[in-house]
Amino acid sequence: MGYVVLEGVxxxxxxxxxxxxxxxSIRKGEFFTFLGPSGCxxxxxxxxxxxxxxxxxxxxxxxxxxxxxxxxxxxKVGMVFQNYSLFPYLTVRQNIEYGLNILKKSASEKQQIxxxxxxxxxxxxxxxxxxxxxxxxxxxxVALARSLAVEPEVLLLDEPLSNLDARLRDKMxxxxxxxxxxxxxxxxxxTHDQTEALTLSDRIAVFNEGSVVQVGxxxxxxxxxxxxxxxxxxxxxNLFEVAVCTGVACLExxxxxxxxxxxxxxxxxxxxxxxxxxxxxxxxxxxxxxGMLIERQLNGVWIDSVVQVDENSLQVAELNSVDSQTLLEPxxxxxxxxxxxGFRLLEx
Length: 348
Ligand SMILES: Nc1ncnc2c1ncn2[C@@H]1O[C@H](COP(=O)(O)OP(=O)(O)O)[C@@H](O)[C@H]1O
Ligand SMILES: [Mg+2]
Prior knowledge:
By secondary structure, this protein is of the alpha+beta class. It has helices at residues 42-50, 92-102, 107-120, 136-149, 166-183, 194-200, 218-223, 228-233, and strands at residues 4-13, 16-26, 31-35, 57-62, 65-66, 77-80, 154-158, 186-191, 203-208, 211-216, 238-241, 243-245, 248-250, 256-258, 268-271, 277-279, 288-298, 302-309, 312-319, 333-337, 343-346. The chain binds adenosine-5'-diphosphate and magnesium ion.
């Protein structure tokens, strides 16, 4: 049984369908992520769970209670907004105390709870500072402490890392994860960033245009995407329109690929760039084609290439390890091998 359950939730603004028939079941203690491009309805759904938006139809349950028509303060949820929504003229302590005032906590309780959460997010001693003087990362911690201080049963985080620089983002990412594990709090995390989703989540729901297009563990989402949208939004992939008969996929130009039984079904063939092999010399293996190297770029751990094989332009990624540094340059003839196990068929 899910702890946060959405049943047929629909929300339309004027003519825009922000959320369309959403059914989701999030388990107690789970780190669950809404992943999708900008404008696909993630924030709207989070606000629906928080009680800041009411659906036109469908229901929201938290802990077995139908909360669809309950106001936010009766839902036991804490939310960190994308822009943090702190009160700029208040101190760190006053910001964190905000929800405790609504809950009518005594002065000593407020002090104790606020101290506890300031320490938890690494802001001990910051109580008297104005939030306007804080860095982005510190403001993010205040927002997190403020939402945790009311001891919510569900924590809602709307792109909390998107305003931070890359290094701080990595640090806060692991801090959020370890805090969530320590508290065991059911958490719904919104992001458009596949790496955040894959590294943080127990499970991910991928959204496209107001609908959930796949729910699964990071491994399921990345390794077994159910459709073209998920395959190309989460990670990079090469896609080919194919006709499939008896274990062989045929491209329009006549190219044939031998498929494994595990490839699934559908008329779009997907191959991740790191599952394609490049060689400077002739290779006598099935699914091997001669092509020309068009682009080659070193990105540190990876070397990314673009290879032209007949009419098809392929993305290939090789690990930049000591034994994989064959010198290849644009214009070189290369042999491209597609190992069978790298093929997945998808519904178009
Ligand atoms: N209050 C609102 N009024 C009108 N349209 C809105 C409102 N909130 C969201 N939308 C529209 O709903 C769609 C989904 O928005 P949103 O939930 O913010 O997406 P995301 O968080 O995935 O970027 C967008 O087209 C957006 O413009
Ligand atoms: Mg949003």
